[in-house]
Design a protein that fits this description.
CATH architecture: 3-Layer(aba) Sandwich
CATH class: Alpha Beta
Largest sheet: 7 strands, antiparallel
Order of helices and strands: HEEEEEHEEEEHE
CATH superfamily: Mog1/PsbP, alpha/beta/alpha sandwich
Length: 169
């Protein structure tokens, strides 16, 4: 009887260990933010930022790294330029970011997510270096931004985080 109990306990502990190891994998998990309408995979949980008084309906979530680098994911309604096509709205969003800084545009390309238009661009200046992706989905924007110190590369997780964005229904 005692050997049978030990065997059952060993089997249960083995199952727990396998499940725990399987869940962790490479340390990345998918985090769902239903209130913002997206899911994202990352090595760390993106932490919610308090809503901005200027944009109370926009939600932002960030991952800070130890070298003044960060990845920020945000989503909210786009209340500007209602009569413009989505691609023009995306260009204007990019233009506002570039014009609002002393930085130069390094690269730019059109992208999409589930058939929805998007834009990716990189900006670098003496005080900032960042890559941004914007998507427009049914009047709502989704933004992913990776920040790094000037002259420094983005965190190695940037592309994987950006590519993991998934819209929730």
């Amino acid at each position: 009887m005692k050997k049978q109990w030990i065997a059952i306990l060993f089997a249960m502990l083995s199952c727990c260990l396998v499940t725990a190891c399987k869940k962790k994998g490479d340390g990345w998990e998918e985090y769902k933010y239903r209130d913002a309408g997206f899911a994202i995979s990352a090595p760390l949980m993106p932490i919610p930022a308090p809503p901005s008084p200027d944009e109370p309906n926009t939600r932002a979530y960030g991952i800070k790294y130890n070298n003044r680098s960060a990845v920020v994911i945000s989503a909210g309604p786009l209340d500007m330029w209602e009569n413009l096509p989505d691609k023009e709205k995306l260009q204007r969003m990019k233009d506002l970011m570039v014009q609002g800084s002393s930085s130069k545009l390094v690269s730019e390309k059109e992208i999409s997510l589930d058939g929805n238009p998007g834009i990716e661009y990189e900006i670098e200046g003496s005080s900032e270096h960042y890559r941004t992706r914007y998507y427009l989905v049914n009047g709502k924007f989704f933004a992913l931004q990776s920040f790094a110190p000037p002259g420094e590369p983005f965190v190695a997780d940037t592309d994987r985080i950006f590519d993991s964005l998934r819209l929730l229904k």
